[in-house]
Amino acid sequence: MSRLKTPLWLGTVLFAGLPVLSACSSETQTSAAEQQILVDQATVTVQSFFVSNSTNSRTHTLLKKAKAVMICPSITHMSVVFGGSGGKCVLLSRDARNSWSDPAFYSLSSGSFGLQLGYQNSQIIFFIMTLKGLQALLDHQFKFDASAGVSFTSFSSNAQSGGTSAIKNDIYAAQKANGIFAGLALGGTKLSVDSAANRAYYSQIVGPEDIVINMRVNNTSADPLRRVLMSSSSATSSETDEK
């Protein structure tokens, strides 16, 4: 009795498809609990940026005027000849009543090439100052480069004071590493919508525009993050107006 033999080419196709199947299964296993960890980390990041800093700082001035913020609690940079960085972020927008939306989830990545050695973990907050800047981030993928269609810049510890300077860009970025504000190279940085994370956190298929603009969904577990943003921006407004 002869056995049926699997053609060699079919075995190769099935084997090659395993990583794809594995990646898909890992995406579907993304849970609300995993995203809640990111939201909780974002809450701590906001506190570290604003609670202990003077209300005259550049970050406070930007928060007061921002249409939205994107918070990246843990961006890892590792480079050994080939450099790169990546992490997860959340985007929240603010309405006219100073009420913040629930978070939309994003992934951040960038790459570089050069003779470099090092490892660094940092926190980043993007201040979105205009509706144009916010609309750009609502696209499925946004890349900080010359063709982005919006103006952006970052600032270091040297720019922490002088909060009265004019707002000239659509997006500002502040990076904090080891408790110190440091310069940030945005060129080539890419932000992508994390659809699996949004779906897991809100138990439905939902895009970033529905979350941060239409505010169609709500997860009460994000309320501490929303409250710390509201209190920080409210304190900034009142204390600044008194001066």
Give your account of this protein's structure.
The protein is of the alpha+beta class and 243 residues long. It has one domain. The protein contains seven helices and seven strands, in the order αααββαβββββααα. Strands 1, 2, 3, 4, 5, 6 and 7 form a seven-stranded mixed β-sheet that branches. The longest helix is centred in the first third of the chain and has 21 residues.
Topology of this structure?
Blueprint: H1 8-28, H2 32-50, H3 58-65, E1 68-93, E2 104-128, H4 131-138, E3 141-143, E4 152-155, E5 171-177, E6 180-182, E7 190-193, H5 195-202, H6 208-212, H7 223-242
Parallel strand pairs: 4-5
Antiparallel strand pairs: 1-2, 2-5, 2-7, 3-7, 5-6
Helix pairs in contact: 2-5, 2-7, 3-7
Protein name: Ysc84 actin-binding domain-containing protein
GO molecular function, one term: phosphatidylinositol binding
Keywords: Signal
Sheet with the most strands, sense and barrel status: 7 strands, mixed
Question: Overall pLDDT, averaged?
Answer: 76
Helix content bin: 25-40%
Radius of gyration: 21 Å
> Looking at the structure, what is the overall shape?
globular
Please provide the count of β strands: 7
InterPro entries: SH3_domain_YSC84-like, Ysc84_actin-binding
Keywords: Signal
Pfam families: Ysc84 (PF04366)
GO molecular function: phosphatidylinositol binding
